[in-house]
Amino acid sequence: MKMSDNAYIRYTRFVLFFTFIVILAGGVVRMTQSGMGCPDWPRCFGRWIPPTSIHQLPADYEKYLRQQDIDHTFNPYHTWIEYINRLCGAILGFLIIIHTVWSFRKYYRSNRKIAWLALFLFLAVCFQGWLGKRVVDANLAVVKITTHMLVALVLTCIPVLIIHIRRPIEKIRNNGLKWLTILTLALLIIQIILGTEVREQVDEVSRSLNYAQRELWLSRLNIFFTIHKTFAWAAALACLILFWSSISHKVLQPTATWIFLTVLVVMILGLSMAYYNIPAIAQPLHMLTSCILFTLSYAHKLRIR
Ligand code: HEM
């Protein structure tokens, strides 16, 4: 492998890392109800650098505040959280544009598959940006949230696949393990889709209570919460069996160990929400760790044939 290959792989890893940062930033915006912190787009209160105090608001600021769905007051904390979230999204966009250009220049002749994967990554991030801005009616909200989550997983898995293609690694040939990993991925994807259904419920219930009285939220969730809680044990068990069956293979040890640790964290965060009235901090972390768990399982699968 050439030196420039190493640089390319390091950069692709960084894109992957930054994608997780953007996923976390989106979760923090939701946790703090900062989504309307910048009521207009692409600017924020008509400015490129948002206001830090009420004195910096434009003369017609009330027209912006009217667009907010809850308090209709200026909150610099919400404004800056939303602004940083947008900034992270924009940086990721630039990182991916550079990645696409680099992939085409470097691999279009020698390894066309990588160039097309990079282009797909670029298109996926464009789609994600478009979906994020699209306002949908309440009935379609869950479709939007689920699609957003599934595209986020595509965004994290493509860099993993590109790295895998560029960095030849010894593969394990084991039919049983291969199918166990595929089963785990399938259970995880079902669990994640169920999770987005629960999240949409939490959004609806919390909005109706003005984001207060957290102790009432859980009791107002529908059957999907019960299904999500129950199905979690099947998904977690599959991860544990996968860990146990893989740990004796040296090549699989790193991903297997991370899968084991991450599923523990996902479960602890999920249970903490179920027993402690959905603590705000657990919401973005549960989502982020679920995405990491799926991505790790995908990386695990790539090491088995
Ligand atoms: C393998 C295990 C699990 C996975 C992969 C998983 C995944 C997810 C995902 C992807 C979401 C949607 C997050 C979002 O869109 O913001 C979610 C939401 C949720 N999950 Fe899980 N989950 C798991 C286990 C559990 C368990 C065991 C519980 C509780 C006993 C639980 C409780 C919740 C709750 C309350 C939400 C709504 C959170 C919110 O409003 O942000 N989860 N889950």
Tag the structure with descriptive keywords.
binds protoporphyrin IX containing FE; metal ion binding; 9 helices; 305 residues; mainly alpha; 2 domains
Task: Please give a structural write-up.
The protein has 305 residues and is mostly helical. The protein folds into two domains: 1-168, no CATH class; 173-305, no CATH class. It has helices spanning 3-31, 61-65, 76-107, 112-133, 141-166, 175-208, 223-246, 253-275, 282-302. Helix 1 runs antiparallel to helix 5 and helix 1 (3-31) runs antiparallel to helix 9 (282-302). It starts with a helix and ends with a helix. The mean pLDDT is 92. Bound molecules: protoporphyrin IX containing FE (HEM).
Q: What is the subunit organization of this protein?
A: single chain
Low-confidence stretches: none
Care to count the β-strands? Answer: 0
Shape: flat
Distance between the termini: 23 Å
InterPro entries: COX15/CtaA_fam (IPR003780), COX15/CtaA_HemeA_synthase (IPR050450)
GO molecular function: metal ion binding; oxidoreductase activity
Protein name: Heme A synthase
Keywords: Cell membrane, Disulfide bond, Heme biosynthesis, Iron, Membrane, Metal-binding, Oxidoreductase, Transmembrane, Transmembrane helix
